[in-house]
């Protein structure tokens, strides 16, 4: 009953905003045709992986639905367990086209290869002047979970570059992503269930590393059954590239047993922790020419008997043990971010308090959305009664209508 009431309340709130109003109304008149780029979170996958089961939509297909709704949409596939820096570099190359350049300074610092894969480009004209409108071709970035951190990192690099890379690299060898020549190429950034301040799941026995290795083991098993790989770990920069003739089982074993899970901060394990998120927030800032939106999720209730937050029965079963942990975990250890009961509300993967925008170590401004988006600030759109996977259509809810409404909102932004 409470779950239903929460859903009805959320829908009521949304109905007063221009997300769910008639797209033909004045508030939602189409003002831009910037493509939407969907960026997956930790352990996510590309459209051609996982036997066609979509990260964005599950058995449905949010990308194709939005395209049919007249919104050009692309789905990115970046490193599922890589750091936000490396994921941002990959996202840049995927959208614009070219070879991934992780940066000379970054490669030296973390002992990884400087260059990665080469992409044809989803939207090669990105950043060019549109001959019809006379304006820069921009994109609307939408990130789920860690994808929200990744798109923030990409925007920071586009607009401000990297002083370390500039100092370490001859100008004729420097990636345009790092050169500091302000590139106002992003119209908006939308985060959905993003751990802007990290997730305490990284501190649990069933935390990020075991979860990643479980995914690897599952992918390996499926691949072995059908004789083909179903999941791309995209860890070439660490030398963890599948070799010619190597079985998928052997490849996944090398990834599973790699020391990267505990020996470096250049992975998702660090960036997703509250301490790592605080470090990321100290240099990744909201830019004054970008619209930022944050959607939070919470699929728990307060248990009067235990005093903790417990998952609702509709939460995806694999997430429920994680939710119980998140709903009762505290940490008060010198040298680390303190987390108490205010962190207990969660969606099975991320603490709800972490989702409305970066706060730890951040100077970003977070405002409650009132129907008129404020540029350069995080417009907090409220909390949806879904778990972490349901927010992208994996589970019992069909989210296509919700994403159409999101596309309508983004399309109404002035450029």
Produce the secondary structure layout.
Elements: H1 2-15, E1 36-39, H2 62-68, E2 73-75, H3 84-96, E3 98-101, H4 104-110, E4 115-119, E5 139-144, H5 146-160, H6 163-168, E6 186-192, H7 208-226, H8 248-256, H9 260-263, H10 268-271, H11 274-281, E7 291-297, E8 300-303, E9 308-311, H12 320-326, E10 366-368, E11 378-384, H13 400-411
Helix pairs in contact: 3-5, 7-8
What does this entry look like structurally?
The protein is of the alpha/beta class and 415 residues long. It has one domain (2-97, 126-213, 266-411): Rossmann fold (3-Layer(aba) Sandwich), CATH 3.40.50.1820. The chain has 13 helices and eleven strands. A hairpin with a 4-residue loop joins strand 8 (300-303) and strand 9. The chain is globular, with a radius of gyration of 21 Å. The model is unreliable at 1-27, 205-211 and 220-226 (pLDDT under 50).
Tag the structure with descriptive keywords.
415 residues; alpha/beta; Rossmann fold; globular; Lip-like_C; lipid metabolism; signal
Task: Give the gist of this structure.
The chain is α/β, with parallel strands linked by helices and 415 residues long. The protein is 30% helix and 13% strand. It has one domain: Alpha/Beta hydrolase fold, catalytic domain (Rossmann fold), CATH 3.40.50.1820.
